[in-house]
Amino acid sequence: MKTTQRNTTVTTKRAAVTPGSAGPRTGPTVPAKASTPKFQTLPHSSHEQRRPIGFEIEAPGARSVYVVGTFNSWVPGATPLVLQGGTKWGIEISLAPGHHEYRFVVDGKWTDDPKASHVVPNPHGGMNAVLTV
Asked: What is the CATH code for 46-132?
């Protein structure tokens, strides 16, 4: 009879715990960070290593121009360029060191950078410009 009770207890506990979990929580597993400031500057952070990089494109008649790439998860509306006069659009953004691929989106059309010194083919039939920071 003792054996049956132990098996029942074990079975009950296993049924309450999903596979791969650490079991029922009885309290916080990570110490609370109540005393840690919400924003904190860390020495030698990647933010300090970022460099301002300028992006420009001539786009006559364009109503909107964006730069999209690995640095903004290829989201077309994330980084708009500003009309700088006439037909030139531009923006300066801060990028972390490394290799970054990018393209422009001009009035909704994905466009290659005609001034790019290094390009790689992308899976959509166009060319991604590559820059190294």
From this structure: 2.60.40.10
Give the DSSP letter of residue 72.
G
Q: Is the pLDDT of residue 45 over 60?
A: no
pLDDT score for 85: 84
CB-CB contact of 102 with 72 (8 Å): no
Q: Is the pLDDT of residue 76 over 50?
A: yes
Q: Where are the beta strands (DSSP E) in the chain?
A: 51-58, 65-69, 82-83, 88-95, 99-106, 109-111, 119-121, 127-132
Q: Minimal CA–CA distance to 131: which of 109, 113, 116? A: 116
Q: How confident is the model at residue 1 (pLDDT cuts 50, 70, 90)?
A: very low
Structure tokens at 55: 């992006």
**What does the domain layout of the chain look like in residue ranges?**
46-132
Q: Rounded to whole angstroms, how far apart are CA atoms 128 and 124?
A: 10
Number of H helices, E strands in the chain: 2, 8
